[in-house]
Write a structure and sequence with these properties.
homotetramer; 11 helices; globular
Chain lengths: ~350, ~350, ~350, ~350
């Protein structure tokens, strides 16, 4: 490929679309962000696009798919459009970065993956946490083999505060909405596939999750093909900030990461000793990870190499989430092979 | 009770017996360690006893039970004698400190508890970790209510190295031998009873646990009466030292404790940054906790108040361990009510 | 002032000039980086400027001073040009951000400050560390008064590795080249002026500082007008990374900050426990501080308020550095009032 | 020497005497604490002695010096008796552990050291901090040479709260009373002798130190024979607890220790994140160090080897303290060679 920069069309200019847009414009030198399409295209978005140096603003995504000068698309639109946009981009021969989840229907995911594969285009799914310096350090240490084989994979993942019940109502439940990131993380850290899960969950906060059949607190145990065991604990509300810790205990030792903090201060007085809180939420914690993720996609396109988070990596966490939901409902261990 | 010091007879002068004996002799001012009985009484033990200021050395424990000047016994003999010694001490009207576990047979435990209750003597079971400054801090913070109700109770508990297979063969399995301390800990931290457990386990080390139907790695999820969820992860071999961390996530925040370290050093060079390892094993980590435990027992006797770890506290972890073993074997969640 | 964005000309496109240029272009929304002048203007710099959206590239700085559309300049050229450029910018009525030091001649500094004052333009000097989240936390805690008055102000400041002897030869000595940042920092943290310094220094590394009358290791004690005492320790070579810690001990307690680390990992094995190194050098450590600094300048211009680091703040550290050099040479405490 | 245990007479049964007595009785197996002498011998002390297994209680120290069965003395009496008791013990051929300082008169110290040397008895001075696990780790790392030569030796040493003014009045001033421990520490850590000091001091607390010509806050810089520089900062009042940190920056890296904490907890909520305070004061922080110190003395006696803290080690910190006081008074650097 004789390309110096990857020419990109952005699909969706909501919060996550703008985040990716700003990173592509300012922090990914090998990306040329050329066009944006959003069904609600308006003056504010056009002004933002101008600031980003984006030349074309559309409300119709087809304008992007049909533009032969565009090399790749960033699918940041609403979840229900992801699979269709993958199909369409694949047909148009464009490389694809798609936000998670691809879809919540396994058939549609598999159809989209097949289309991308057939078209020979790159596909990367937005599991951004893999690009966090902390979690990556855990992964790299395990992958190096210096600690031997993984025995226990642990993920603590707690959001700083409740989502609105309006959001929860349509979220698909904690496992598909929130734990899905952790299901990707355990696969990434263990270097192995999940074969079975058992999930416990409870609505403890009084915020009302139970009225939508959902929970605000969950623990999921899992088994991996390589024999390791895993566990994730989730809470919808850790009022001290975003609690995102990972740990892998191996044959010869353990690697773990603490949260990034707002600063490295310690204030000591007769009243006690205070240190800084964890960074507030994903925008603060994974800021640099979003940049690294976009760079990795652009790099894969430019060098014609495999993306670091494949379509298959987009499919598996959905399956695990479905198995966890089934486990919670049926109150028993559920094999991944029972899903789909 | 008009007593200035509690006059104590020590039953068993093995490793744990000598540990308690030294603490009673040197670190518990209100204890008067008067006699010791051990079936293998010999010159070395007599010399040790002399150093401790112990006046009487016996091979026959009956000499202690029948001595009307002795107020209380410390049962530190082999596990299979615990229940009988409790019965005998209760008959003799002596207060009882008993090392864990009371027994591995629920009927014998209940018989021993009934005897102590009927005799009106104090009974304290040796779950020493409750007296550790770290875990106590977690407990006290939760119990204070300042963080609201507990949602997630987490215990990481890993031994520094494998036991011999000769030991493992007769250990009763990981849940009764090792996790039993963690089952006590989760009850202590949650301030609530376990109602259900699901256990995962694996023999990953190659050390041979599987030949005795045992595992070296385990994760146990549990539910509590108060609605909280819990999880314990265990490994028989964390070669960096004794890994004993606890954490409770509550409505309004989270309290957690890291390991005690050998020192507070940091050595920085081009090669990296090193800090100290965790203290090696339970003798190093729980040294002060053993003293606090003995003081608490003596205090309960002198003030005629409830011991901080009761006979019931000795019974429940055995039941939970049995439920965990059943869960692992039958590959399903097991209710505590199914046990005993 | 009816201005939506501050239109900026950049003077100097070396390493620090490009750093500011990229921040102004990408991370300071209210800045419009319009022109750059560099005596060595070439194609590479023009290409960089194009990437940054800079419209005009000059080799003659006068093109910037004489452009009436330009509101402010960033002086990032070599130190010997700073004072002249401030004079020229002041004459042209442009607001001024100037990299440190303004000059190493007190007379020239005072002339420049007077010119800026007379012209009524903003002047901010590039003591970037004030904008670091860590040091700012120390400052803000002290300034809040919650810990009472400052008693001891401590700064540890060590570079990761030696500069070349070619650099050292013309650097002006450790106090003017390196400690000058720390002299600004102690004033910032103490909220008070330095009145006296005593300096110790030594060339211990064998790298050859002594042949230029310089040292690689220094400790400077100081007194402040408010009665507090201070101390700075410096090393040219801390091979583990950039060591930048500050601490203020006050009447009622102490606030201190540790270094930012590359990540929050801990790797534990039989070999020991490793944590991450501090970030490597100022580009890594003060990356966000450079952005905050530029934003603060632009904000002061737009709101017509005092800059957070004034011309006087640029002058004082030079005086303190001169006093420290005199103290080291004359082996005695030196009053600030002896300087200039 | 054919001795299984060292038979010890304790001189002085105040707070520090009782501390050593309890350690010798309970924690130093090779010590036999046989007698105690105190001018204020009373029933309470006799009861304490009985608890410790001490056979003889005297008000006259001569009873101890003249008892040929006693091998060694622990001098824990008031400072003004130390030098005389050393002389007397040396004459009587008894090994000597002496609390710091030996005296505040250099001539008397030298006379005492000469007597001990002539008599060929062991002499150890009570600089207990050398036996702290943290500071020892710094020392051992430096002494190992793995980080190259020491460049900067730093000691932070702050007491938790003010002493009474009655105490301060007769304390001899901050350098002889408090910093003397730090002067020993820097020699220990640097592995080299102090050649010069410059001291800054201030009375900032309002507690009244200035009325006795004393200060509550001090910073002392020093030079070492090996070329290294050093700095100590002191405060009489760090209300968060005993602040005792040491650090040595070397050619190839840095070793530092943080304070021991009451526990390893972290409590996170919307209000902030709290960790434990440092241990309160020297009894808490140096508890184990006192035991290690006594063991080291007994070991030196039993093995006829040099004590780890010699008479010379007792002399030097007094000289450094005098030089620091002179520096503060005369407002100039003072050479150690100017003292005595």
């Amino acid at each position: 490929m004789e390309m110096k920069k990857v020419r990109i069309g952005l699909l969706g200019a909501g919060r996550i679309g703008k985040l990716h847009g700003e990173n592509l414009a300012h922090a990914v030198p090998e990306a040329a962000l050329y066009a944006v399409a959003d069904p609600f295209m308006n003056d504010a978005t056009r002004a933002w696009a101008a600031d980003m140096g984006i030349e074309k603003c559309y409300s119709d995504p087809e304008k992007i798919f049909s533009d032969p000068t565009i090399d790749a698309v960033f699918i940041c639109s609403s979840t229900n459009t992801h699979a269709d946009f993958i199909l369409r981009a694949a047909q148009a021969g464009k490389h694809i970065f798609c936000e998670k989840p691809i879809d919540t229907d396994l058939g549609k995911i598999e159809e989209a993956l097949a289309a991308a594969k057939k078209a020979g285009v790159k596909l990367q799914v937005g599991f951004v946490r893999r690009f966090d310096h902390n979690h990556k350090m855990v992964h790299d240490t395990v992958a190096s083999g210096r600690l031997g084989k993984p025995n226990i994979v642990k993920v603590t993942s707690r959001d700083p505060d409740h989502q609105s019940m309006d959001y929860i109502k349509v979220s698909g439940g904690i496992f598909l909405d929130m734990t899905i990131h952790d299901f990707d993380m355990v696969r990434y850290l263990a270097g192995s596939e999940v074969t079975e899960v058992t999930a416990y969950g409870a609505a403890l906060s009084g915020a009302g999750y139970e009225q939508y059949g959902d929970v605000d607190t969950a623990i999921v145990m899992m088994k991996f093909e390589n024999g390791a065991l895993g566990v994730i604990d989730n809470s919808r509300a850790a009022h001290y900030g975003y609690d995102q810790r990972t740990e892998v205990h191996c044959d010869k030792g353990c690697v773990q990461v603490a949260n990034d903090l707002n600063d490295m201060s310690m204030i000591s007085s007769a009243d006690g000793v205070e240190i800084a809180k964890p960074t507030w939420f994903f925008l603060e914690r994974y800021n640099n990870a979003f940049i690294a993720e976009a760079k990795a996609f652009v790099h894969a396109v430019l060098t014609d190499t495999e993306t670091p988070v494949t379509g298959f990596d987009g499919l598996q966490p959905v399956k695990i989430a479905m198995a966890a939901a089934k486990s919670l409902q049926e109150h028993r261990p559920v094999l991944l092979s029972e899903i789909g």
